[in-house]
Structure formats: structure tokens, C-alpha cells
Amino acid sequence: MPIRNPQTGRIIGVVDLTGGADAVAVHSLPLLQAAVSAAEGQLLLPALAMERPDEDFLDLCASDGPRLSGKPISLRHAEILTVLAAHPRGLNSAQLVEELFEQPDGASEGTLRSELVRLRKFLADSPFRRIAARPYRLQWQLQTTLTRLWSAMEDGDLERALQLYPAEILVRSQAPGIAALRCRAQIALREIVLDRGSAQQLLRLGRQSADSQLLLASLRELPLDSPVRPLLVAEIEALEA
Questions:
Q1: Distance between CA 202 and CA 191 in Å, rounded?
Q2: Three-class SS state of 121
Q3: Strands, sheet with 67-68, edge to edge from the N-terminal-most edge strand
Q4: Residue 231 contacts by C-beta under 8 Å, 6 or more apart in sequence?
Q5: What DSSP character marks residue 126?
Q6: C-alpha–C-alpha distance, residues 48 and 10, integer Å
Q7: Is the pLDDT of residue 105 over 90?
Q8: What's the DSSP call for residue 65?
Q9: Are 105 and 121 in contact (CB under 8 A)?
Q10: 198 or 47: whose pLDDT is higher?
Q11: Confidence of residue 27 (pLDDT cuts 50, 70, 90)
């Protein structure tokens, strides 16, 4: 079984199991795989000992499309990373297919494997960006708009949450897993702003999402002499017409 350089993928050695009938017993393959994994893990230690780069951030709301630490990334690759970041314990191939494909079929797992090959090549410029298999999971710390949004909401920092979420995440994505994450984030942010948001925060999110209930809540919080009130009343009437 080959041992590969974990940074380049080049074969640098092999683990050989020679012997009689016992050498091909059912437990032999797992033992070989464990030995290879241990060897490759040791080879990776010097790279891991180097100073790590700044934390990766996947921007899901950029106006010109998703970006990984400032670098443009395809929609499908952003979807894969977002789903895996939301499931740190990993997903098997069937689960990942369900998260990514609207109408999965017999070819979907093959398509997914091809996308993962391309994604791994895209990530290969850093030795830290690794995607494990069985199950598929991220092996480095990746922050996304969603993970930072949830952190801000858990900390009660509504201003930061609203700054992080100026628009829908991956607005062009129709992947079921992304749609579910998007819906969950929208509902949570809406509820927390309704519960404890200021007039301006209610107004900002209400206008962003064209939500008359949020705008009405903002209207109730605004001073009676606020010049915004007449405009806000007109907006609410238009939404409810």
C-alpha cells in the first residue's frame, strides 16, 4: 500500500505485508491503512509545526460571488465547504449528495467525487486545507459567514450579526442543504432582532428582507417626531397592499 507525501500527493514509499494465509486475513487491510495513515501523519507534523496562516474565511454574501480568504471560488465548491463547515463531524457520500443535489440520481455520487477532486486541487496551495473522506469532513478551521453569524447571535451582538448578513447567503444556490442553512439563519436573525433589536436594527433588517412586521416594530420604536416615520408608513402600506 503506497505512502504519499501529504502535501504533494507523491508516492514516497510503500507498506508491504508478506506472509502466509494469516497475512490476507480480513483484518489485514485495516491494519495496513492504519499504518499508512500513521506514517503520513508523521510526515505532516513538520508542516503543521510551521506558523499557521490567518484563519480562513469563506464569504458567502460577497456581491461578486463567494470568496475564500479573498480568492474567488465557484458556487459548487462554496456549497461543499459551507455544508461541511456546518457538519464538523462529517457526512458520508450519500448524505453529502442529499445536501447538494436537488434531484439526486445514480450519477450524483460520481459527480460529487469529481467535484471533490477539483476542490482539493483548488485548496492544494495550502498544506493545511485538507478534506478527509469516510466521512467527508474539513480538517482545518474554516470560518464562514454563517459560523460567524451564529457566533455573533449567541454573543448577543446584533450589530455585528447584521453587518455579517447584508444579503442572503449564496443567493444563487439551490442546493437543499444551503437552502436549509439559509432559512435557519434568516429565521434566527429575524427572531432575535424582533426580540431585542433597536429601531434602526429593526428598520435595517425589515428593509433588507421586505418584512412588514419588522418595519411595524421599528415604527413603534421610533420617536413620534422622527422624519423617517412617514416614509416607513408608506413602505409598510406598499408591502401590505
A1: 11
A2: helix
A3: 71-72, 67-68, 56-59, 142-144
A4: none
A5: S
A6: 18
A7: no
A8: S
A9: no
A10: 198
A11: low
Looking at residue 51, what is its pLDDT? 44
Q: What distance in Å separates the CA atoms of residue 73 and residue 129, rounded to the nearest whole number?
A: 14
The whole-model pTM stands at: 0.74
φ, ψ dihedrals at 2, nearest 5°: -70, 145
Distance CA 111, CA 120 (A): 14
Residue 162 CB neighbours (<10 A): 19
At 43, list the grid cell.
Answer: 510526515
Q: Cell 416615520 sits at which residue?
A: 229
* Nearest partner of 79 among 188, 164, 174, judged by Cα: 174
- What is the end-to-end Cα distance of the chain in Å, rounded? 69
Q: What totals of helices (H) and strands (E) does the chain contain, helices first? A: 10, 8
HSE at residue 203, side-chain half, CA atoms within 13 A, is 15
Nearest to 186 by CA among 172, 168, 201: 168
Give the contacts of 189 (CB within 8 A, at least 6 positions apart). 149, 153, 161, 162, 165, 205
pLDDT of 49: 46
pLDDT for 19 equals 66
